Amino acid sequence: METFLPGVKIIDPKVYGDHRGWFMETYSHQIFQQAGIDCNFVQENQSFSAAKGTLRGLHYQLNPKAQAKLIRCTKGAIFDVAVDIRKGSPTFAQWFGITLSADNKKQVFIPKGFAHGFMTLMDDVEVQYKVDELYAPEFDCGISWNDQVIGIKWPHDLTPILSVKDENAPPLSKANNNFIYGV
């Protein structure tokens, strides 16, 4: 399902259940290609967050090492966010958020040109995501999670638990960004 941010898509996999439990395909190149997602995923990552309110993001890699991401929560629940950072885009600095959980089994696809972040909604959360470009630390960038121009409505009134990197991330207006809409 397409969101209002062009290219950001929600994937709601078919789950087949019976008295033993359930089965689902978390990724099928053919099905994703039919949905307009044609990526060659080259790396899969998994994170664990011990405490509710852990916030990771907003992260992205610059061109030419930009990454498209396919994200799912395999234990617990997160509020997942994509932010359009493509200069000149009609949706520049707009964000989309969705709850991903082990229970709802939804996934979100975030194309290149978007920053990504999430906040855990409970303790002991695991997130897995595929990317179509290898991690390249020299191209790794971030944007402040509470940038006033973007105005993300995070689900908790808690002070988020952040890494030092995320605490020091600049606002979008000062972030290193080489994404141009339509290029």
Task: Reconstruct the topology from this structure.
Blueprint: E1 9-11, E2 15-18, E3 21-24, H1 29-34, E4 43-49, E5 55-61, E6 69-75, E7 77-84, E8 95-101, E9 107-110, E10 114-120, E11 125-131, E12 140-142, H2 164-167
Antiparallel strand pairs: 1-9, 2-3, 4-11, 5-10, 5-12, 6-9, 6-11, 7-8, 7-10
Q: Summarize this, please?
A:
5% of the residues lie in helices and 37% in strands. It has 183 residues and is mainly beta.
User: What is the strand content?
Assistant: 35-45%
Unreliable stretches (pLDDT < 50, length at least 5) are: none
CATH fourth-tier homologous superfamily: Jelly Rolls
User: What is the end-to-end distance?
Assistant: 24 Å
Give the CATH class.
Answer: Mainly Beta
Order of helices and strands: EEEHEEEEEEEEEH
Radius of gyration: 16 Å
CATH architect. name: Sandwich
Quick check: average pLDDT?
96
Major beta sheet summary: 5 strands, antiparallel
How many strands in all?
A: 12
Indicate the percent of residues in helices.
under 10%
Q: How many helical elements?
A: 2
General shape? globular
Q: Write down the CATH topology.
A: Jelly Rolls
Structural domains: how many: 1
Overall SS class: mainly beta
Strand order of the largest sheet: 1-9-6-11-4
